[in-house]
Specification:
Layout: H1 2-20, E1 78-83, H2 86-89, H3 92-105, E2 108-113, H4 116-129, E3 135-138, H5 143-148, H6 165-172, E4 181-182, E5 185-186, E6 189-195, E7 197-201, H7 202-208, H8 216-228, H9 241-259, H10 276-290, H11 303-311, E8 317-320, H12 324-330, E9 337-339, E10 352-360, H13 367-377, H14 380-390, H15 403-406, H16 411-418, E11 424-425, H17 432-447, H18 453-468
Parallel strand pairs: 1-2, 1-3, 10-11
Antiparallel strand pairs: 3-10, 4-5, 6-10, 7-8, 7-9
Helix pairs in contact: 9-10, 9-17, 11-12, 17-18
């Protein structure tokens, strides 16, 4: 009983102590069964504490987006163009043409220029290392060797990628359809197509009263008259055989041979000159030389010497290509270079036709861009501008009906010459450079009296077959 009482007192004391502490919660005493009713003190009502208002979590600033890497710019396409014309006519037109093409297409053109005599040596080196430029110029004499070395791309599969394939095909084959084909492939695009010819100093002819010859016999008669007047009528390029080979082989011997009714080669490119016509043609030039009707020193004259003497007025005629107007203008000539209307022989008035071609290299990694550049250069506006600038007859017929073209002293003669029966293009010849050098060497033996024309022709035919069979 004492124990229960003591416990009861202790609980009351604790309650009082808790009550004295402000804000302390009152603990209700544990009810214990007792015989005496305990005095119950009512505990104060304590309100439940109010929960503080919820605090919103601070808003996190938006994370910056990851910086995007700028797109990697594609490398611009670059193509290379190997040409020799700027070395003769200056850089101005060629620089502008390539710059305009770059601005129009975004394709960069790296121009590689070299003089004519360096073209084939460089191309031979590049062919062996499979490093031909994307676009390069060529003439028919090199076609067979380029084809054998797989240096020319077939253009037919590429033509549909052009903006106007139909116009391109029409322009490149306007004069002679299929002229750029070889071994059943379209491997060349003609830039110009024109005949070699006889060019003369118009003002000097008028001053001296000379009649422009129209036949090979009249040319000899005129040279006889000029010799009697003490005038150097014409100089030949018969110097270094490797350099003069093309000039004698094609410009003189082949041209005179066509007039006699013969041919230099057959349709397969094999020799066809060991004939009476072939001998007549070679003898014609030998007689002019032996009779002193040519400028002294012709047997040793180079290409540049011949052109330089004509443009300086030292000779009054030259057999060459239609670029002679631009060549003499570049050299500062003050006279008019006019083209003769043609020279007829015993059978025909046929001319040697000279196409200059564009080729896309087979090893090019940018064939479509390369053909797009060729398409640009052969297009109407560019072909027209080139023709006006250099008095050149383009394969593209855009200028044929222009009055200034028809009245030009050179281009005004070309369309009639191209229409003459008996014309023949330069034949594709395997190892053409070696063949031409050989012909030049054998021809000089005739000039120096070391062999007759008959002996020279037999020797040339034998060596020609040996060289082309390599």
């Amino acid at each position: 009983m004492k124990t229960i009482f003591k416990l009861h007192v202790l609980l009351i004391v604790i309650a009082l102590l808790l009550s004295a502490c402000g804000g302390a919660a009152t603990v209700a005493p544990t009810q214990i069964p007792a015989t005496e009713a305990p005095v119950v003190t009512e505990a104060p009502v304590i309100e439940a504490p109010t929960e503080p208002p919820a605090v919103e979590a601070p808003t996190e600033p938006p994370k910056p987006e990851a910086t995007k890497e700028p797109p990697v710019a594609e490398e611009p396409i670059t193509i290379s163009w190997f040409e020799h014309l700027s070395t003769e006519w200056g850089n101005e037109w060629f620089d502008k043409a390539t710059a305009d093409f770059e601005a129009k297409t975004g394709i960069h053109v790296e121009r590689i220029s070299a003089p004519w005599n360096d073209l084939w040596p460089k191309m031979t080196t590049w062919m062996q290392s499979d490093e031909m430029p994307d676009v390069y110029g060529t003439w028919a004499g090199w076609t067979a060797s380029l084809d054998r070395n797989n240096a020319m791309a077939d253009l037919k599969p590429l033509i549909p990628t052009l903006a106007d394939p139909a116009e391109f095909e029409a322009n490149q084959g306007a004069m002679w359809p299929g002229i750029g084909e070889f071994n059943n492939k379209l491997v060349m695009v003609p830039w110009w197509l024109q005949p070699y010819g006889l060019f003369y100093n118009k003002e000097a002819f008028a001053e001296k009263g000379y009649k422009v010859p129209s036949t090979w016999d009249e040319l000899r008669t005129l040279l006889e008259q000029m010799k009697a007047d003490g005038v150097n009528g014409m100089e030949m390029t018969w110097g270094v055989p490797a350099e003069s080979g093309i000039h004698f082989t094609y410009l003189q011997w082949m041209w005179r041979l066509l007039g006699a009714g013969g041919a230099l080669t057959d349709s397969a490119g094999n020799p066809a000159f060991n004939t009476p016509e072939g001998k007549l043609a070679m003898q014609y030039w030998a007689d002019l030389f032996n009779d002193g009707l040519l400028m002294p020193g012709s047997e040793a004259a180079t290409v540049q010497q011949n052109r330089g003497d004509f443009c300086a007025g030292k000779t009054l005629m030259i057999i060459d290509g239609p670029w002679m107007g631009a060549t003499c203008e570049t050299m500062g000539s003050e006279f008019t270079v006019e083209m003769a209307p043609g020279l007829c022989g015993e059978k025909t008035c046929g001319n040697v036709v000279y196409p200059w071609y564009f080729v896309v290299a087979e090893n090019s990694k940018n064939k479509e861009a390369a053909l797009k550049f060729i398409d640009y250069l052969t297009s109407d506006p560019i072909a027209s501008d080139f023709s006006k600038t250099f008095s050149i007859s383009m394969a593209n017929p855009i200028r044929y009906e222009d009055e200034d073209y028809k009245n030009n002293p050179i281009t005004g003669k070309i369309q009639a010459l191209l229409a003459v029966e008996g014309n023949a293009p330069l034949p594709p010849t395997m190892n053409a450079e070696e063949v031409q050098a050989m012909v030049g060497t054998e021809w000089q033996k005739v000039l120096f009296g070391q062999q007759t024309v008959e002996e020279a022709i037999a020797s040339i035919e034998k060596q020609w077959n040996e060289i082309t069979a390599k």
